[in-house]
Design a protein that fits this description.
The protein is an alpha/beta fold. The protein is built from 13 helices and 14 strands. Helix 10 packs across helix 11.
Amino acid sequence: MANRCDCSQKGLLVGIGNPLLDISAIVDESLLQKYELQADGAIMAEDKHMPLYKELMEKYKAEFIAGGSVQNSLRVAQWILKKPHVCTYFGCVGNDDYARILRERAEAEGVTVRYQVTDEAPTGTCAVLVTGTHRSLCANLAAAQKFTPDHLGKEDCRKSIASAKFFYTSGFFVAVSPESIMQLAKHAHEHSHTFVMNLSAPFVSQFYKEPLSQIMPYVDVLFGNESEAEAFAQAFNITETDLQQVALQIAALPKLNSRNRVVVITQGKDPVILVEGPKISLIPVIYLTREQIVDTNGAGDAFTGGFLSQLVMGKSHETCVKCGIYSATHIIQHSGCTVSGESDFHE
């Protein structure tokens, strides 16, 4: 029988991140070269990238897809759980049509949305350049980077925080409001709740080491892929190069509570590395042919969403990983981080 959320409590999981509308298009290599983008890269847009968004819309068959890493993960978690309003999302948007699209999509999929709305900037966008089975992300945060910690003090947000037992954020959001992350991390610590984080992209460890090092002692569960784990290891002076050993050392970094830190490193088609304190498990992924893979954009977000859906139900971390693999396998057979049909994950 497929898993259904047996948790009676709504609002168990709070996520905070950058709500972005993905502008996704299949392009050729020359466009990547024109804007100095890497095939599987993820970067923040600079001035030189600003014409890219208009070019995608005018010259390519661009799709608009509700995005933003954390919001994607919560949408996928809701899809697995089949019970609305288990997940609540914080992030900042503009006062515009893009924000309305994002809100409608998230709420239709069961996520409770607590957006901060700014008139200072438009809703953020993310260019998704698909070349074969690769995707390059270029995010123009715009309104997303206007998030301020005082939003968490508003009554509906305070109630959401008080009712949650799990908190999730991305490395991407470290570049926006580390103060807000710390506020949630300290709350989780003080109430013996679970704080979960995603490394998100190599640049986070490379350029935001200081706030990341302040957040890490609160992190109970950490996600990353191979390149993110390698960048973290380099930034934090971990000399091991074997990813299993890197994961063990990340798990052993200083931590405020006595629970073992869980570290999860995905490796594309290779097994997922799961470290629980001193214990290493390798969990194989589901093989797909090249023809079955439509778009790898959102695979990491979907993996995290699947994992979180089982975490809030108190399942083993191995089951969490298996649900992450199930979710990612589903997502990469679709364009963008979109789901179809009912989920049917089985333990």
